[in-house]
Specification:
α9 runs antiparallel to α13. β1 (44-51) and β2 form a beta hairpin. With 400 residues, the chain is mainly α. Among the domains are: 41-86; 103-197, Receptor-associated Protein, CATH 1.20.81; 300-396, no CATH class. It is elongated and about 100 Å long. It has helices at 3-7, 20-42, 67-76, 103-118, 123-132, 137-151, 156-160, 169-181, 184-241, 247-261, 263-280, 284-294, 300-321, 326-335, 340-354, 365-372, 384-396; strands at 44-51, 57-64, 80-86. 67% of the residues lie in helices and 6% in strands.
Length: 400
Amino acid sequence: MSCYALQRRPDPGSSRAPSISYCRWRRSAGVEKNLVSIRRFLMASYAWTARGQNGKIQKGRLAALNEAEARIQLRRMNLATLSLRAKKKRAARQSMFEPKVKEKDVVILTRQFSTMIDAGLPVVQCLGILGEQQEKKNLRENLLAVKESVEGGKTLSESMAQFPKLFSQLYISLVEAGETGGVLDVVFNRLATYIEKVAKLKAKVKSAMVYPTIVSAVAVLVISVILIFVIPVFSDLFAEMGHALPLPTQIVVGVSHFLRDNVPYVFVAAVALFFAIRYARKTEKGRLLSDRMSLKLPVFGILLRKVAIAKFSRTLSTMVASGVPILESMQIVARTAGNKVVENAILKARESISQGKTIVEPRIYRVYALCAAPDIKDSASSSPKIKWVHMFSVKGGKLA
């Protein structure tokens, strides 16, 4: 019997069982099919520009596991590579029922990364171990994609930059500084500490804003009930008495009648105002105006100013201590400020420093001046205590 007969699939109407050779062939074919599927899943898309043998410039796209394999494919096509750019991989899609990646997960991941690097494990092995032990699917897939990118020849910071939803610009810049200085374990440890402190600060802010928010909501609800249901009863009573009402009372009664007669329109106007403010915040001028007004709020404004100062100082300290240049640090700190007014002040201070001035020049205090009192025009009149602290820090070389 020929080898083909042993591996041939039995006839549909035959009762003869498949041969052992045929079963092995089917099993090996299934394994190869799975390997091909896995390979296609791991492949990245590369946009290339190359010069052909005739001297003409050609452009196109190809799929490869890494940049080295893409260059080999172009070489086999007799093309001289001029540029090769990988299309950024999207982060794993978040399902509605899938648990989200929280700051606590990032802290644990960063701590573990620091410990493993400090123990002498290679970066690729660390990423593989951390990726395989993650319970959340999107975090696991992103880490394994970072591992594949590092194996392809990219640096760790460049690989992490492909997933901005998981790794912030601050995170990537610190990792890049750690790679340059060879202190990745120290940088990851500082990053974990920084994220923990930021999370604690957010928790404190939320807890501090719960009470005034509840009080404000209850006050609005009570006033609305009084104006719509209670005041009309008293207004009818006052009308039967025939006496002229004082002006403040007439205003309250008029507002009550307006709300009672136009409840649907008031509700629609409130919803429209909410979406209008939300749309305005997407524009540059609208966000600047809303952020400036938020710093002037009676109760929340003071809290937002203190949060801005704490976040600015802590973030700048972490980046400078990790070896990131002061100009780049202030650029990233401005992006992560969360308030357009504070962001503009930091960028103006950065511009002043880039012109050769020290950090104790008056412009740097505009950040603190705007946070302490948003109406201050002259930043030189800000807190003298902060000024002397920074002056001694700069002269002593211990700004962080």
